[in-house]
Amino acid sequence: MFTRIVAFTGATDIDAGMRYLQDAVAPLLREQKGFRGVTASADRSGGVLGVLSLWETEADRDASESTLVKAREEGQRVIGGEMTVEHFEELLVEIDKPPTVGCSLLLRRISMDPAKIDENLGYFRREVLPQIKANPGFCAVRNMINRQTGEGIVGTVWADQASMDAGAEAGEARRQQAAQRGVTFGEQSKREIVFADMR
User: Fold this and answer.
1) Given a cut of 80, is residue 164 above it in pLDDT?
2) Which of helix, strand or coil describes residue 34?
3) Chain-centre distance of CA 64, in angstroms?
4) Are strands 184-198 and 35-43 parallel, antiparallel or unpaired?
5) Exposed end of the chain (fewer CB within 10 Å): N or C?
6) What integer pLDDT is reported at residue 175 of this predicted model?
């Protein structure tokens, strides 16, 4: 599976953005070949809105680009702030409970040598994933990487903010082990899921 993340930082009207996503963008996405779902998350106090779309193949995702450019431009006009678009390959997804509106989302940016991606993914699957899943309130995890750059995002979904905060704290203890494997950690973002339409 492949993903596209469109993020708005310094967003001035998240609620209007959500209505636009639901009324205009989601129907457009559903018409695209290979579309497999879309979720949106918001950090209202930080003025951040992120939209994750899932695609069956890289070619499907890329083919949808021309159709969605105008929709994104209109979205930026509605939402405000600065817009970024990123593309990743979904290397691992584990879902105990499908993410729903109101769940909490913890995003952590990571980077590594592209040559070490598969080795580190194996380590994540064997060692890290069972620890994440053991935390109360765990719903889902998604590990996404750009194989060319080694940049990626790990997102974990939690039943509520308390379980997300506890999961984030538990994750801090694992960072030293990951750093020894050449994984560098970037910013962390705590959000609420505000829209979900999964296939």
Assistant:
1) yes
2) coil
3) 19
4) antiparallel
5) C
6) 82
